[in-house]
Amino acid sequence: MIRRLAFALLFAPSLLSAQAQLEYAGRRSDVAGKLPNDAVFVALGGHEPAQDYLSFYQAPSFYYLTGFKEPDAALLMVKQGGAVRWANMFVRPKQPSREVWTGTRVGIEGVGTLTGIRGRTSVDLYRVLDSLAATGIPFFVVGEVSTRAEDDDGPVFRTPDEQLFDRLKKKTPALKLTVANDIVEQLRGTKSAAEIVNIRNAVDITMRAHKEVIPAVKPGMNEFELQALIEYTFRRNGADRPSFASIVGSGPNSTTLHYNLDDRFIGATDLIVMDIGASFKGYAADVTRTVPAGGIFTNEQRAVYQLVRDAQKAAERQATLGNAARLMTDSSNAVIAAGLTRLGLIESPNATYDCTTGAQPRQCQQFQLFYMHGLSHGIGLEVHDPEQYYYMGKIQPGSAFTIEPGVYVREHILEEIPDTPRNRELANKMRKAVETYKNIGVRIEDNYIATTQGVEWVSQVPREIAEIEAMMKQGSAGVAARDEFRVEKYRLIP
Asked: What DSSP character marks residue 369?
């Protein structure tokens, strides 16, 4: 029912505008409910780049509370006696001489129509904050601020947001200021029905890109050719942009987690890790597939790939409503450690190595030499978005997250570990296996949404070995037509 309502709203522009205002107002109300009875709440938006021809992206938490996309804006709410007495949006006023360069501004009157909040000029922000600071009411601030004091030891770079409050505190030293980013991020961890619609669209566009690029892979291509096809598919189907720098890593580059140079020519026996995500209306997807350049996995690639896929399956079995999220990691780690042992890459599932030097070296698990990142993260307004299980520990309706195990056999791993007697002994045991599996990097990443009906795998791109090989054998029939249905939805969603 929730999904049907959100879907219906896509086709009612006037109703959706009103619904969007209610959505953002509800989020602001939720924030206010977490503040003390008397408080000043300030949320600062992102700042325009020094060069105005560079792309501007709104600060995620500010966008979450307002839906406002212009730079250098601020939201101010004053809560007294347990209720919000007034709220203002401070924005840049209309200025035709600047708008000819950067585009038409909403302006002071326009922001009220857009958000339902009274608009004021951003020039007044400091004066109003200064007046409120003098009353002694505590401030709760969302923005690029930290708890580090301006006069801490050592040089300190102060962000524009911090400089604003440094100025206030210099004039009113008794001002009590609390960084409230975590309050908003905890709310962002539970996705609403409207947010889930946008995430589904982002994932669907990302799936289309994978389905375009996988059959098109051929030895001799350059990574940037695949990147270009991926990002063309994103934009052609209504995505704002990639939600992060597209990762297309072949051969040795497949073992670099966030490789994004994408400029190597692909060899016939290479594996290619393609970790990509579209952003739709500000919401991110994040889906990874690993494919063989020649269309057929070698025996060594097949062994590592199947190990990673088995680890993902183990995590998926634990991804159920009410389950502790850590069980996904525990199950996946157990499969990876056992599999790396079978391949001869580590001594045993619980074996350790010296990860520091000294009289008493610190011990780390050997499987982490080949699997060094987390299994899961939230997706939403950021590709690594807050997720409610970070705070509650359990998967609940409104969760949106990834499951992404991986194994990366870096060619020079044995030279990179600390030089200790124990590690030299270990290296001698592992050298043959590392040589066998070197430059094989595999990551399989999927996206999941939890509703009251359960946890749904939403990024349904082929991922079994036989499916991938069949897809690549079939080859590309050329770039598919854009999804006219989605492009029409794009026009209607504000």
From this structure: G
Could you read off the pLDDT of 444-477 as tens digits, one per residue? 999 999 999 999 999 999 999 999 999 999 998 8
298 in Cβ contact with 251 (< 8 Å): no
The model carries a pTM of 0.93
CA geometry: angle at 359 spanning 355 and 363, to 5°? 25
Give residue-wise pLDDT tens across range 266-291: 999 999 999 999 999 999 999 999 99
- Which of 288, 286, 188 is closest to 242 using CA atoms? 286
Q: Calculate the alpha carbon distances from 208 to 233, 260, 480 in Å.
A: 7, 20, 9
Q: How confident is the model at residue 14 (pLDDT cuts 50, 70, 90)?
A: very low
A 10 A CB-CB count for 430 gives 21
CATH placement of domain 190-492: 3.90.230.10
Phi/psi of residue 190, each to 5°?
-105, 115
Residue 377 has pLDDT above 80, yes or no: yes
CB burial string 267-298: b at 16+ within 10 A, e below: beebbbbbbbbbbbbbbbbbbbbbbbbbbebe
Of the candidates 283, 325, 273, which has an alpha carbon nearest to the alpha carbon of residue 444? 273
Find tokens 């051929």 and name the residue.
218
Taking CA 395 as the corner, what is the angle to CA 394 and CA 398, rounded to the nearest 5 degrees? 130
Look up the CATH number of domain 2-187. 3.40.350.10
pLDDT category of residue 10 using cuts at 50, 70 and 90: very low
Flag whether pLDDT at 230 surpasses 80. Answer: yes
Cβ atoms of 285 and 278 closer than 8 Å: yes
**Rounded to 5 degrees, what are φ and ψ at 239?**
-70, 150
pLDDT tens for 330-371 read 999 999 999 999 999 999 999 999 999 999 999 999 999 999
Tell me the C-alpha distance between 401 and 378, whole Å: 4
Q: CA torsion 106→112→116→121, rounded to 10°? A: 100
Q: Are the C-beta atoms of 257 and 441 separated by less than 8 Å?
A: no
Backbone angles phi and psi of 274, in degrees to 5: -120, 100
237 CA to centre of own chain: 20
**Fold: same for 2-187 and 190-492:** no
Instruction: For the chain, give every domain's residue range.
Output: 2-187, 190-492
Q: What integer is the mean pLDDT of 76-104?
A: 95
Q: Give which of 32, 143, 16, 15 is closest to 83, Cα–Cα.
A: 32
Written in H, E and C, the secondary structure of 323-348 is: CECHHHHHHHHHHHHHHHHHCCCCCC
Following CA atoms 222, 224, 229, 235 in sequence, which dihedral angle do they give, to the nearest 10 degrees? 180
Per-residue DSSP letter, 255: G
